[in-house]
Amino acid sequence: MTTQQIERFARPEQWSGHPLIDTDVHINLPGLKTLFPYLAERWQDYITESGMGGLPSNLYPPNAPNMFLPGSKPEQGPPGSSLELLQAQLLDPWDLTYALVNCTYAVDSVHNDDLAAALARALNEWQLHEFLERDPRLRGAAVLPLQNPGFAAREVEWASQHSQFVQVTVPSRSREPLGRRAFWPIYEAAQRAGLVVGIQAGGLSGNPLTPVGWPTYFVEDYVDVPLAFQAQLLSLVTEGVFVQFPDLKMVTIEGGFTWLPALLWRFDKDWKGLRREVPWVDRPPSEIVRDHIRMTIAPLDHPDTPEFMLQVIDQLLCDEMLMFSTDYPQAHFDDPADALPHGLSDALLTKIMSGNALATYRLP
After folding, report:
1. Which terminus has fewer CB within 10 Å in the chain: N or C?
2. Which residues pair with 105 in a beta bridge?
3. Share above pLDDT 90 across residues of the chain, in percent, rounded to a whole number
């Protein structure tokens, strides 16, 4: 083991022989000026003269303890900003066939549509040249300037010209529900390009995460993360996104999944009595979600009794929804074997480890 590897962080021996695809790996920008080679002189001057210091990751407090794997921070830059560490700590020891990288740099916090579009393009060019083109195991998710759906659709079209991008991402905590028609140009462009739309946990929209206002503590915010995903799924189905775009696939990233069966039971039940309001939803919402939504599994909500987890997975009534993820460089498990539910059948294990990701992202 080299000094760059993380002790005990590697593929468990019992998973040998299975292809493995990590569908949620985070990369981070070393600093805002890293983007200067990809920004027009106008925006370089704007950033310098305004004293703009940088955009934080929009997911976790940067100094929260135990958030990142020990040793995942390079000498310069935040965890996830070094390709060499990513290769030594994840790609090689986990023997990954592919890893899908996401960059949570908070472009959505910018209140200037033109600057947001310029930063999103620069960020996507940076990850293309600094990560995706330097390791054939990597596939990318292009960041979109969600402030302006027209600009975002244009970014989808740009990303589709580069085969390394298989996904575009929007934050789960958006300024308004993602099913709204204002966002449909994004979905039209994604469907046309064959790109998946990933909904990434986090976001700096200014809206509180909960429907009752702002929580006080980080633990509240962290436990509340699924609320945003639930609201987004209800909006996407109810507004008719998947009727309008029947080939569109979406992935919830880092939002958990154990809450989904209860949500779908309630959604189906109430849709039966209220379906005249939304006549375009012409079949049970649960069927639409199972056809169009895929979910990364980290962080995994492990119950003390493993059988309870298997019951929840059975209640999904679909073996194509879940996809393996580590959420590197975030630290979510002490034992790598805990990155997957225990007791899965071999057929389901194969689907979660790679089969579902291969189909969702149309990987060779």
Report:
1. C
2. 57
3. 79
The 10s digit of each residue's pLDDT in 125-177 is: 999 999 999 999 999 999 999 999 999 999 999 999 999 999 999 999 999 99
Tell me, what DSSP letter sits at residue 194?
A: T
Does residue 299 have a cis peptide bond before it, meaning omega lies within 30 degrees of 0?
yes
Residues in Cβ contact with 57 at an 8 Å cutoff, skipping those fewer than 6 apart = 28, 78, 104, 105, 106, 202
Of 116, 134, 93, nearest to 170 by C-alpha is 116
Q: What are the backbone dihedrals phi and psi of residue 213, each rounded to the nearest 5 degrees, phi first?
A: 110, -170
Tokens read off for 311 = 């019951």
Structure tokens at 202: 């986090």
At 1 the pLDDT is 45
* Segments of 67-133 assigned E as strands: 98-102
Q: What is the average pLDDT across 82-89? A: 96
Q: Which residues pair with 330 in a beta bridge?
A: 68
Tell me the C-alpha distance between 19 and 360, whole Å.
15
Cβ count near 49 (within 10 Å): 8
